[in-house]
Design a protein that fits this description.
- The chain is α+β, with helices and mostly antiparallel strands.
- It has three domains: 165 residues, no CATH class; 38 residues; 153 residues, 2-Layer Sandwich (Heat Shock Protein 90), CATH 3.30.565.
- The protein is built from ten helices and twelve strands.
- A hairpin with a 3-residue loop joins strand 9 and strand 10.
- Helix 1 packs antiparallel against helix 4 and helix 8 runs antiparallel to helix 10.
Length: 461
């Protein structure tokens, strides 16, 4: 009986029986009242034979009293109290019940009292004669026959109640099985089947219930299963991509290491242009090698912690802007920085370079895609608690999908065709410093991201 339908069956039977018990007490009280009133009426009819003539035989009198089921009959007529019929009482009168003004509570109390008192008694019953045949009628009677009649009536009520309870419980049981238990079982079966193969979209439940609440539950479950299936597929793609990127990064690192050896020789060149560009080329290749090594570590699920050092922020910002200015080509984009020359902070310079480069690159790509002139600005400020770096642009703003999945891989791309990995990587790198990366605003007039790096112990060298 641990099932829903079994418990519902038991509760239904209990509640129906409880309702029948509540009905039983008023019913048995009403039966006792009707029984006593019938005795008064039969006694009144029996007394008419005596009132019709002056004398009746003792045998006839006994027969009239026996048919009425009483011992004595007293009538009050014209303010005179008259003993109409009488016979010897087996025992003295113990109690008197007046039915003329008895309330419901009093009738129920007297009925229950009679059921719980098995000993026979002689009682006096007072009531009003029918058809205004006097002012009062009073009879004496024994209680044994009354109690037996009440018990018989009560048993019939209980049997009827039991039958009604069983029929009602069975009907409700069948109704619950059809309209509730079976749909729930179908939902549970669908959940189990989906759990065995959550990647298979065919296991997603198809809402079909006609019950409003169950329909809502099925639709919610279908939405959850669809989202989970998509997330699992995305996870598989990310896992596969991670493995592929790790392999490519391994080989690319070797190639870049070789290129780094060749660029070392460029520094010995006497050509002024080569001397000016060689350090930037060396720095770019060095960053590419470090990125490959970090990618290999990430592919092994080992996110490298930041290597903290104190450095000038303006150097990194200048490198980023110089690189993006070259990438902009003929596009009408102006770059500016608002970073004072002596502004220093303690962080991982390579990771911070990647964060700023990703944000500036996204801004540059958005402006180029719009086909309009634009401006990109990098601003830095600090308080006693934190360092704030703000990257803003005058581009077209982020598309709705990018705003909804801003830092989600492959869903938060800021430009058409973008993967969204840049923002995701930047978010994780800033979080590794104990800071935060947030979208300050976006719209037709441009976009601004804010990097916040707490100082704390980072201020110490």
């Amino acid at each position: 009986m641990n099932s829903l339908s079994g418990r519902f069956l038991i509760l239904t039977a209990i509640f129906v029986m409880l309702a029948e018990v509540l009905i039983f007490v008023p019913s048995i009280a009403r039966f006792r009242e009707d029984y006593l009133l019938s005795r008064l009426e039969r006694a009144q009819i029996a007394s008419l034979a005596r009132l019709a003539g002056d004398e009746i035989s003792p045998d006839l009198e006994d027969e009239l009293l026996a048919n009425a089921g009483v011992y004595n009959v007293v009538l009050r007529r014209n303010d005179a109290r008259q003993l109409v019929l009488s016979s010897p009482l087996p025992t003295p009168i113990t109690r008197t019940f007046d039915l003329r003004d008895a309330g419901a509570f009093e009738l129920m109390r007297d009925a229950l009292s009679r059921l719980w008192r098995p000993e026979a008694e002689v009682v006096r019953i007072i009531g009003m004669p029918v058809r205004s045949a006097g002012m009062l009628i009073e009879v004496t009677m024994e209680t044994n026959s009354l109690r037996m009649a009440m018990i018989d009536y009560g048993l019939r009520i209980l049997v009827l109640s039991a039958v009604i309870s069983i029929i009602t419980a069975v009907l409700l049981f069948l109704a619950v099985r059809v309209f509730l238990v079976k749909p729930i079982s179908r939902v549970v079966g669908s959940m189990r089947a989906y759990a065995n193969a959550p990647e298979d979209a065919r296991g997603v439940i198809a809402p079909s219930s006609s019950i409003t609440e169950l329909r809502a539950a099925e639709e919610t479950l279908a939405l959850m299963q669809t989202q989970l299936t998509s997330a699992l597929r995305q996870k598989e793609r990310l896992a596969g991509l991670g493995g592929a990127v790790a392999k490519v990064s391994h080989d690319l690192r070797n190639i870049l290491t070789s290129a780094q050896l060749f660029t070392d020789r460029l520094e010995t060149s006497e050509d002024p242009m080569v001397k000016r560009m060689a350090p930037k080329l060396v720095n770019s290749i060095t960053r590419a090698v470090n990125l490959c090594e970090s990618t290999l570590a990430y592919g092994k699920a080992e996110e490298p912690p930041p290597r903290l050092s104190r450095f000038a922020l303006l150097d990194i910002v200048t490198d980023v802007i110089d690189s993006e200015r070259l990438s902009a080509g003929d596009a009408e984009i102006s770059f500016s920085e608002d970073v004072r020359a002596g502004f220093q902070l303690r962080a991982d310079p390579e990771q911070l370079y990647r964060v700023i480069a990703n944000l500036v690159r996204n801004a540059r790509q958005a402006i180029v895609t719009s086909g309009r002139p634009g401006e990109i600005n990098v601003q830095a400020d600090e308080t006693d608690e934190a360092v704030t770096i703000r990257i803003s642009d005058t581009g077209p703003g982020l598309p709705p999908k990018a705003r909804e999945h801003l830092f989600t891989p492959f869903q938060g791309g800021a430009t058409k065709g973008g993967s969204g990995l840049g923002l995701t990587i930047s978010f994780e790198l800033v979080r590794g410093h104990g800071g935060s990366l947030a979208l300050e605003y976006t719209g037709p007039d441009g976009t601004a991201f804010v990097i916040t790096l707490p100082k704390g112990d980072l201020r110490s060298a």
